[in-house]
Amino acid sequence: MFKRKLTISDFLLIVVNLVPLYGVWFENWDARQVFLVYCMETVIVGLINVVKMACVTIFVKKQDVWENGGSSSMQSGWLFIFFFIAHYGFFVFVQTQIFFAITGMLPDGSMLMRYSKIPALLGPNGRLLLLIFIVYYTAQNVFSFFSSGEYKTISMGRLLFQPYLRIFVQQFVVILGSIFLSFGAGKIFILVFVVIKIFFELFVNLDRLLEIAEKKQRLKDQLKK
Predict the structure, then answer these.
(1) What gap in Å lies between CA 116 and CA 64, rounded to an integer?
(2) 109 within some domain
(3) What CA–CA distance (Å, rounded) separates 74 from 67?
(4) What sections of the chain are H helices per DSSP?
(5) Dist. CA 225–CA 215, nearest whole Å
(6) Tell me: the pLDDT tens digits for 41-50?
(7) What is the 3 state secondary structure string of 70-108?
């Protein structure tokens, strides 16, 4: 399912992702720091989704249908949120652990102490890029979510899984990129990475694919009944 028309937000996405590409190629930014920012992008997307889920639970509906192995039941919206934090957090943990293991960026030590080193590892350019990502994704996701009225109709199940399709693509490319970084091919792979990321973000309608999957699941549940 492909998008047919680009929006202003899509063009802004292109600009945001060209910033790190320009920095690495022409301003001698550290490619490892840029890929670390993309790892943190996963965290940003997850935190924003938690905020969206919490707002739906508080202001729209306290409960929604929970699908579990072919059966369904009404559950609190907070259950969806806690499940998302635990499940999504596991993906983030695996992604960052693989990235740090391959690149060797994090020093030895306890897990808490190692992760506390991330702000320093980002450096000035990485922190600037991270701030740009935070502003962009907050504005893009939160503003459109509420201004379009989507928060009034979206199911908690669909909202729960919204970030996953993007994250699967991103995790694969970031992990593959970390391997290239270990061989000193950061510039080449940052180019490939940005091109792939922009393509999936702009031309593959992931939300539409998720909507179709949700409808098929509902149809199957109805046929079983």
Answers:
(1) 37
(2) yes
(3) 9
(4) 8-26, 31-59, 77-103, 111-115, 118-138, 144-147, 150-153, 156-161, 164-182, 186-203, 206-224
(5) 16
(6) 888 989 999 9
(7) CEEEEEEHHHHHHHHHHHHHHHHHHHHHHHHHHHCCCCC
Note whether residue 207 is domain-resident: yes
Tell me the CA distances in angstroms from 169 to 35, 116, 153, 157, 166, one per residue in order.
Answer: 14, 26, 27, 20, 5
Retrieve residue 143's tokens: 């503003």
Euclidean distance between CA atoms 98 and 119, whole angstroms: 18
The number of folded domains in the chain is 1
**Token output for 110:** 């306890």
3 located within any domain? no
Residue 168 falls within a domain, yes or no? yes
Domain span at residue 34 reads 8-224
What tokens does 193 get?
A: 């990475």
pTM for this entry? 0.81
Q: How buried is 147 (Cβ within 10 angstroms: 0-12 exposed, 13-18 middle, 19+ buried)?
A: exposed
Instruction: Please write down the long-range contacts of 104-110, taking CB distance under 8 Å and 24 or more positions apart.
Output: 104/182, 105/32, 105/36
Strands 63-68 and 71-76: antiparallel
- Rounded mean pLDDT, 132-156: 86
pLDDT digits (tens, 9 = 90+) for 84-119: 999 998 888 887 787 777 777 766 655 666 677 888
